[in-house]
Amino acid sequence: MRHLRRRRVVEEIPQASLPDLAFLLLIFFITSTVFAVEHGLPLVLPSATRSPSVTVEASEVFRVRGLADGRVTVDGSPATLEQITPQLRARNAERRALGQSELIVVVETHPDASYQTMVSILDRVRAADSRRVALQMLEEGP
Predict the structure, then answer these.
(1) Model pLDDT for residues 21-66, shown as the tens digit of each residue
(2) Residue 138 pLDDT more than 70?
(3) Per CATH, the architecture of 58-137 is what?
(4) Closest by alpha carbon to 107, among 85, 122, 89?
(5) Which residues, at least 6 apart from 80, have a Cβ–Cβ distance to it below 8 Å?
(6) Where are the domains of the chain?
(7) Which residue in 2, 55, 59, 61 is a FRET match for 87, CA 20 to 30 A apart?
């Protein structure tokens, strides 16, 4: 009697349609991905030509300084980062009640101050919904 030999079936994944599948997955992820758009603090940068100088009264300025040692001052008085937003909102609310425009926030940072100090100050200014912001470098100070 003859024994029939069974053919051994090699189990493997068909690879002929693998490039098609990869292409379809690529198309799917490209079309379904949502890119997050970050909204930063809008800053108006000076133009290349010399812009005219503008005189501003001291009462229209909210001055925040970031010092080299990490301390923060608001209008010359020591303050914490958490105090910037409520103080700025209160001062702007007072000005709006009197029919005046919002304060100009001047952020001055010492050249040796950490970058995080300036970013934290700008985050607090943004949280107060203030749009008139000027950035300066402290040339002298403690």
Answers:
(1) 899 999 999 999 888 877 766 666 666 676 677 787 888 889 999 9
(2) yes
(3) 2-Layer Sandwich (3.30)
(4) 122
(5) 72
(6) 58-137
(7) 55
- DSSP annotation string for the chain: -PPPPPPPPPP----TTHHHHHHHHHHHHHHH------------PPPSSPPPP----GGGEEEEEE-TTS-EEETTEEE-HHHHHHHHHHHHHHHHHTTPPPPEEEEEE-TTS-HHHHHHHHHHHHHTT---EEEEE--S--
Contact 110, 68 (CB under 8 A): yes
What are 137's two structure tokens? Answer: 């470098």
**Rg of the chain (C-alpha set):** 30
Residue 5 in this model has a pLDDT that exceeds 80: no
Bridge-partner residues for 65, per DSSP? 73, 108
Distances (CA, A) of 86 to 55, 56, 89, 141: 27, 23, 5, 25
Please give the structure tokens belonging to residue 42.
Answer: 């809008």
Quote the mean pLDDT of the chain. 84
Q: 23: how many CB neighbours lie within 10 A of its CB?
A: 10
